[in-house]
Specification:
alpha+beta
Length: 459
Amino acid sequence: MKLKHSLLVALTWCVLSCNSTRKEAYTILKGKLLNSDLSEIKLNSDDQYFDHRIQVNADGTFCDTLDLKDGRYTLFDGKNNVITYIGKGNELSVEYDVLALEQSLKVEGEGAKMTDYFIAKNKILQAEYAKTNEIFALDEAAFKKTIDSIRSVLTALLPESPYIAKSFIDKEKRSLKYAYLDKLNQYEQRHQYSTKNSDFKVSNTFLNPLDEMTFDRAEDYQYTIDYKNLLAREIGKKALVVRERDSLTYEESFFRVVKDISNEQIRNMFLFDNMRYLILTTEDLDNTYSSFKAISSDPNHLKDVTKTYDALKSVSKGNPSPKFTKYKNHSGEATSLDDLQGSYVYIDIWATWCAPCKAEIPFLQKIEKKFHGKNIKFVSISVDVAKDYETWKKMVTDMNLTGIQLFADNNFESEFIKGYAIRSIPRFILIDPQGIIVDGNAPRPSNPKLVELFNELEI
């Protein structure tokens, strides 16, 4: 009875939220997931700064009242992405079968036309992606004509609706322009690859359209990956010049160039976006953190990076390793880190869906053979979600994966994974026979430095 009452209250609140007074201030997002046993679904803004979880009822329905600004948002159920426009004060309904998204998706309401546009855009871009090498192999004139045609088709598809802010449509048009410019920017290198002609150079005027590009639109940086890519390539070019001229490391040249980005908001966002990777891969954690603090003026970014820094410091060389306890192995039995004490332990954090992880497997198998019988255990921990347990078991069997194969108890939310501040995979960790960290971010199996490290330790 209590459950029924709670459900009734939730549904009543959703209905009441749709009245005209409420609608002026809030957005109503509702819908239904078919063939789903999910208890929640995620809603993210395009820049990932808005991350919200919406509760899903037992019958698959959901309804939430949100205080959102106009923008592009993504519903994510763990497998499918539904990209849609949600305007402030609008109402949107999304229904689909999680096992057949494309065939079943129904979107109704004031942002539906923009959602239809995103679906059509995605199909066009997928078709373009399938012909990437063919398109970049074209001569300059044909290449420009092709990518300009794609941009024109997409622009023509943009809907007109009183429920879609003109400023948002203008932003999407600029996004299509940035995509066009970024393709021009990539053309020389991609054409060399596609035609196997490493001597190819673009003509003197080919990149002239890029001259009008400025990096002072923070809203565009937040909205479109193509704007970010253009900025990243510009920063990369400048950093390379500085690096070669002044004999600096990659990180030193990066920070020196980023410091000169004139727009403070873009400088902060670009630095923060890159720090998410740099701080996890740097060989000089303290210096990288100090360089970030000297440039960033965003307190929220500092708080986030400091949290990661503190976590990484706690798992730096010489500290006791976080432990995993009773992780299920391939035989269905339990394995804990303490069971492996007395030997070095080389840990591979991976997942069945991770292509870079699987690319390391042949190298890992060679390393395992080379050090077979030595005082080292090779452990692979999958961070797949629980529903993919059987997929993991089958892949371990089919690929004849050796070493100790384990399944994390709560994917990326497992305490051991969070203890090492792991946000991306693959990740490799080396622990000594006493359970002390040798390297919390050890070389990959494909990196010759791994064997050098093992030899230095006389394993």
